[in-house]
Amino acid sequence: MSDEAKSGATPLEGDGKRILLVLGTPKAGSFCSALAEAYTVGARGQGHVVRQLKLSEMQFDPILRDGYDQSQNLEPDLLEAQRQIHWAEHLVFVYPVWWGGIPALLKGFFDRTFLPGFAFKYRNRSQLWDKLLTGRTADLLVTMDTPAWYFRWIYGAPAHRQMTRTILGFCGIKTRRLAQFSPIRPSNETQRQAWLRKAELLGAGV
């Protein structure tokens, strides 16, 4: 559930963009949370309307039990997430890379939420499909313990390709910026403060 939905607040919407930030980590109090808040501060400072979905606080089954063979009723938090995605012009995903991929909770969120008829639609007797979320853009803020150069050249950046191409791109969402913050584990306070300033500037530059 979004912060605003829980508080009942309805921000005034002017000329700023409608931004939905999805915090895709199950770990409370992580550096991803700090990055999300910094980005939000930067965006709101420029007059944009920012709503947040924190997956760790949402109640839903992350497992798509029968694929698309049978319908699986959406929990209220996922129905709200779909409404927020439709509302948004710009999406922001903040998450860590674990084992070279996105966290299971974030993958489960996509499995359960980005459904046929909502995010995409296959055409009858065709290998082509309609991208139902076309027109939206996205920023990705990603933390890793692996150095960025090693993740790209040795591992082939599998999590980045999955997000930008086979999930967001498949549904018509164009990734504008992918910011990597790594390596996290050996970083010091000075480095982390610099990263938070970068996240704030990314929000201000939407």
TrEMBL record:
- Specify the Flavodoxin-like fold domain's residue ranges: 17-185
Look up the domain of life of the source.
Answer: Bacteria
Q: Which GO terms describe its cellular component?
A: cytosol
Alphabetic keyword roster: Oxidoreductase
Respond yes or no to whether keyword Oxidoreductase is given for this record. Answer: yes
Q: Name one Pfam family in it.
A: Flavodoxin_2
Tell me the GO molecular function terms: NAD(P)H dehydrogenase (quinone) activity
Q: Which InterPro entries match?
A: Flavodoxin_fold (IPR003680), Flavoprotein-like_sf (IPR029039), NAD(P)H_dehydrogenase_qn (IPR051545)
Instruction: State the PANTHER family in the record.
Output: NAD P H OXIDOREDUCTASE-RELATED, NAD(P)H DEHYDROGENASE [QUINONE] 1 ISOFORM 1
Question: Which family does the UniProt entry place this protein in?
Answer: Belongs to the NAD(P)H dehydrogenase (quinone) family.
Quote the protein name from its UniProt record. Answer: NAD(P)H dehydrogenase (Quinone)
